[in-house]
Amino acid sequence: MKVSKGEIFERLFVNEPELNLHIEQEAGSQVKLYVINFEISGYRNTEISNKISVEQLGEGCETEIYALAYLKGDEKVTTETHVRHAVGGGKSEQLIKFVLDDNARGRFIGDLKIAPDAQQTEAHQTNRNLLLSEAAEMRTQPQLEIYADDVQATHGASTGQLDESALFYMQQRGIDKQKARQLLVGAFMREVLDKIPESLIHSLPHSLNPLLDAIDGVVE
Hints:
Elements (H helix, E strand, L loop, with lengths): L1 E2 L4 E7 L3 E8 L4 E9 L8 E10 L5 E10 L4 E10 L5 E10 L4 E10 L6 E11 L5 E10 L4 E11 L2 H9 L4 H17 L4 H4 L7 H7 L5
Parallel strand pairs: 1-3, 2-4, 3-5, 4-6, 5-7, 6-8, 7-9, 8-10, 9-11, 10-12
Helix pairs in contact: 1-2
């Protein structure tokens, strides 16, 4: 699909079993995408694939991609992004997060390309992952290709567990361990969830109340 000059395309996708988007942006257009995978087994799926491809074909485009997967049991999610800056003056921001418990499996494939003619581009790609069990597994494959000189571009990926010192500190302040764990996981998720406009949050069906609870920092 094409996003015409000066237009804004903004969408929230929740537990789409096979999300496959290819977007071409014309000059001055904006794309804002939010992808949430939460308790996917309740949607009769234990495995989900998200594939997003965005090409900035006009000057001054802006692209934002925010994705969060909170997985339990044997659930699996792959999120794949391809962002290409073909011309200059554009911006892109990607923040992809996974929270994995039990035997859950997550995978992120990120491909960010800046073409030779895409001078004065600003592009950032970040993947952060939180493992809540020893059996959970995360695979991350970020890739950054820059062929222009006058750009600002970063990418990074990190995978870790809950901060034991933070848990201990909160328990010392009278917060039980389970509640402290919930608060830390909620704070980790909030960085993505806070990007979603309230108008889109309120449009969610009632069956997604667990997601709304998570936004309030409550993780079962």
